[in-house]
Design a protein that fits this description.
Elements (H helix, E strand, L loop, with lengths): L9 H28 L3 E3 L1 H14 L4 H13 L10 H4 L1 H16 L2 H7 L7 H7 L5 H14 L2 H23 L21 E2 L8 H6 L13 E2 H11 L3 E3 L7 E2 L8 H9 L1 H28 L8 H6 L7 H13 L1 H18 L5 H16 L4 H11 L1 E2 L5
Parallel strand pairs: 2-3
Antiparallel strand pairs: 1-4, 5-6
Helix pairs in contact: 1-2, 1-3, 1-9, 2-8, 3-6, 5-9, 8-9, 13-16, 13-18, 15-16, 16-17, 17-18
Length: 394
């Protein structure tokens, strides 16, 4: 039959293609990424093996290879050694040749061995999925032809292109090049879109790099992670169990001193703390300084992209951006002050501390100096900082 056993309408083929590609995306984001690579959840053996088999049929990827390459990416993100960083290799290279970069990385057997611990090594993995990794896609082609007829060739081609284009090209490329950032993690990861419909939530890449071991990628209330919705459905059916979610800032009313609980909360939620610092301290001072400068001197040019420059990790600034930032800070004392306090606050958890007492003393000193700085926004932020206690989303 020219239209296959199912003999669908045109829109029937479209819906079938979307369903099939969504199963592939779910297999990548739930099984390979969140379960195997980051151990953010556990899966029932039936579901785990279904995903593994489906990936064999639709991608030919081997679990240990994908996991090792992604772990290496997190270990060397956007620096030399990253298997697919547009910061290192260029956006064109990663976007258009992402699949080639993946295949090249699989040839590094020493790296695969180092980073693939804990991945499946059973009989079926050794004798079928790994040994005949390319045979699965042929089986998928035959199945598409039987079910969908001649249109099955197009459906199969789309299935084969889906991961190389969307995951290898878009997520690995654009996800480190263009988009918005909720948190200033130490690499260039961005959220491409706030609604993860198309790539199973993988679009929320900045959130993921900030909280790599979380099973949930969405953080803001207006973000949607389709992969997380799938996980919730599996959890409801008893087929998955979430192990870790993003930490959440919590405050204890009446707490007005820095102690070990404060230190644990601040360090464990450091990205949220710095995001809050920008919104409650840097932004109000920036708006006031900008308004004054424009009224008195008509100085708009110096403030172009000032918010991004003051928020972004210094190590990610280009030489041109760094020059502009220094010019801005040199001319505006209050901006220079809040930027300095931002840097010294970050230094508390980036330096190697010899004891918990040293961390407590460092944070106490920071709060004392902030309260004595003469800036009301710094005083208010310091008081709020003292009230933080550890809490995890459940």
């Amino acid at each position: 039959m020219i239209f296959g056993m199912l003999n669908l309408s045109f829109w029937g083929y479209v819906v079938a293609t979307l369903i099939l590609t969504q199963i592939t995306i779910a297999s990548v984001t739930i099984y390979l990424h969140r379960h195997q690579t980051h151990r953010a959840l556990t899966l029932h053996p039936i579901i785990s093996h279904f995903f593994r088999c489906w990936l064999w049929l639709t991608t030919g990827m081997i679990t240990r290879d994908w996991v090792a390459i992604h772990r290496k990416h997190h270990a060397t993100t956007d620096v030399e050694g990253d298997p697919h960083s547009p910061v290192v290799l260029g956006i064109k290279k990663v976007f258009f040749e992402g699949a080639e970069l993946y295949r090249e990385a699989t040839n590094d057997k020493e790296m695969i061995e180092k980073y693939s611990h804990g991945t499946p090594d059973d009989w079926i993995e050794r004798n079928i999925y790994s040994r005949y990794s390319a045979r699965g896609i042929i089986v998928m082609l035959l199945a598409d032809l039987v079910l969908f007829g001649v249109p099955g060739i197009s459906i199969w081609a789309i299935q084969m292109m889906w991961i190389p284009v969307w995951a290898a090209g878009v997520v690995n490329g654009i996800g480190h090049y263009f988009g918005y950032r909720n948190f200033e993690c130490r690499d260039a990861a961005t959220n491409i879109f706030p609604w993860g419909f198309w790539i199973g939530g993988e679009e929320l890449h900045n959130n993921h790099h900030t909280f790599a071991s979380s099973a949930k990628f969405s953080v803001k209330w207006w973000e949607f992670d389709l992969g997380w919705m799938y996980i919730r459905c599996l959890s409801f059916l008893g087929l998955a169990k979430v192990k870790k979610l993003p930490p959440k800032l919590a405050r204890q009313e009446g707490k007005m001193q820095v102690d070990l609980e404060t230190v644990k909360a601040v360090i464990g939620n450091r990205f949220q703390v710095m995001s809050h610092y920008y919104k409650s301290v840097v932004r109000p001072v920036l708006q006031r300084e900008k308004q004054t400068a424009v009224q008195q001197h008509g100085d708009k040019k110096l403030f172009q992209s000032a918010g991004r420059l003051l928020r972004q990790e210094e190590s990610l600034l280009t030489p041109r951006s760094s020059t502009r930032l220094h010019a801005l800070l040199e001319r505006h004392e209050q901006l220079r002050m809040v930027y300095h306090y931002r840097q010294t606050l970050q230094a508390i958890w980036t330096k190697t501390a010899s004891s918990q007492k040293e961390l407590i003393d460092s944070l106490q000193l920071w709060c004392k100096q902030a309260e004595e700085s003469g800036l009301e926004v710094l005083r208010q932020f310091s008081e709020q900082l003292k009230g933080y206690v550890p809490k995890t989303i459940r």
